[in-house]
Amino acid sequence: MYKDILAKGVKIKIIGDSVAAGAGSSMSFKTEEVIMEEDRKKFLKRIAPNSWWGLLEEYLKENYYACTIENKGCGGAYTYQIDKHIDELISIDDNLVFVLMGLNDRKLINGMEELKSNCEGIVDKLISKGKMVILLTPTPSVHSNEYYPNRLYHTDEVVEILRSIAKNKNILLVDNYKYVLEHLKKNQMVIDDINYGDNCMNDGLHPSDYVQKLMFQNLIETLEI
């Protein structure tokens, strides 16, 4: 299905948080371009050629898909901020929207309720605008990052909510969390073995180049392209 859709030269939009934007990968940097402003903070566009979406962009070019990708992932954004600014993030000519978010809501007292409500609202708005929507889960974090004091909730809770939304809304889910855990089990590794790399962010949360490649591989396998 998606192979045929992409062959038509669709416009792909990516929205979400820093993981959506490709933070963590090497050669990744913020530009001066402002995506949105909220709560006195400017969210800046990120360039990330070695990220999951950077690899996807190159793959589509190499395989002669006449698609364009625009990433409006906002590092540090909560889902309520993305929901509030959805009309700024989405263009009328976007055809396919990848949504990857939720980790920042772990810091909020009612974070998982916010995530569920806001993500459902975002998906509904996108569908009402005629967009095809694909939901992605984040990847696992190392234990030390997962249990920072400000993590009121954990990644597995975020993932379960996203899985539920994808099922209830009948939209495609790219389950990066499951894919990475299965890779670790198969190769008898732990996330600490692969979530760090040369010139990567190496904070234990944002995916290294190794994990970015797994995200990319999972995406093209799930889309069957």
Automatic annotation (TrEMBL):
CDD domains from the UniProt entry: SGNH_hydrolase (cd00229)
Domain SGNH hydrolase-type esterase: 15-210
Short name of any one Pfam family annotated for the protein: Lipase_GDSL_2
InterPro entries per record: Ester_Hydrolysis_Enzymes (IPR051532), SGNH_hydro (IPR013830), SGNH_hydro_sf (IPR036514)
GO-annotated molecular function: phosphatidylcholine lysophospholipase activity
Coiled-coil region(s): none
Protein name: Lysophospholipase L1
Species this protein is from: Clostridium collagenovorans DSM 3089
